[in-house]
Amino acid sequence: MQVDEPLRQEITPKNILMIGPTGVARTENSPGRLAKLANAPFVKVEATKFTELGYVGRDVDSIVKDLADVAVKITREQEMAKVRERALDAAESACWTRFCPSRA
User: Fold this and answer.
1) CA–CA dist 51, 69 (Å, integer)
2) Cα 27–16–11 angle (5° rounding)?
3) What is the mean pLDDT of residues 89-93?
4) Distance (Å, rounded) from C-alpha 88 to C-alpha 77?
């Protein structure tokens, strides 16, 4: 699904930070709708909260690393989809050449 050009500029960059109280459906909306619409990576995390005992949750570096990993995975899948048909055709052609040279 592609967004119309005027709205596309509003989405760039593809970073969405949803903040709000418990129970407002941030988690339900993000992966299913917004992340796919924006073609953006989504990682559900419990962000760091400082307490008297230290911190609870995950640090920013690990959150950013997870987001980068998801973004790389999305990009890899998109690039593979672009060449999948050509790769299948090349593999089929190579098989015909190898096993039935008269037909190739």
Assistant:
1) 29
2) 130
3) 93
4) 16
